UniProtKB/TrEMBL annotation:
Domain Ferrous iron transporter FeoA-like: 2-72
PANTHER family assigned to the protein according to its UniProt record, in alphabetical order: FE(2+) TRANSPORT PROTEIN A
Any Pfam family the entry gives: FeoA
Name this polypeptide is given: Iron transporter FeoA
Gene from which this protein is expressed: feoA
The entry's keywords: Iron
Domain of life of the source: Bacteria
GO molecular-function terms, A-Z: transition metal ion binding
Length: 72
């Protein structure tokens, strides 16, 4: 069980589920749906936030938000 926040730059994963119900609704509205491929594009110098590519567009997430996304 790997979290999005643990993924290295350039690596991809498939969204499996979410650990936080409230946050999952927000993330799904932004295109982070189960079964979607997600790729870490950039990480800020201090590690927060991270830029990911999901559903064909770039999305910036805080580490705390990214840690609620479980990958396959």
């Amino acid at each position: 069980m790997k979290k999005l926040s643990q993924l290295q730059i350039g690596k991809t994963g498939i969204i499996k589920e979410f650990t936080d119900l409230e946050m999952s609704l927000k993330l799904m509205e932004m295109g982070c749906l189960p079964g979607e491929e997600i790729k870490v594009e950039r990480v800020a110098p201090l590690g927060d936030p991270i830029a990911v590519n999901v559903s064909g567009y770039m999305l910036s997430l805080r580490k705390q938000e990214a840690s609620t996304i479980i990958l396959q």
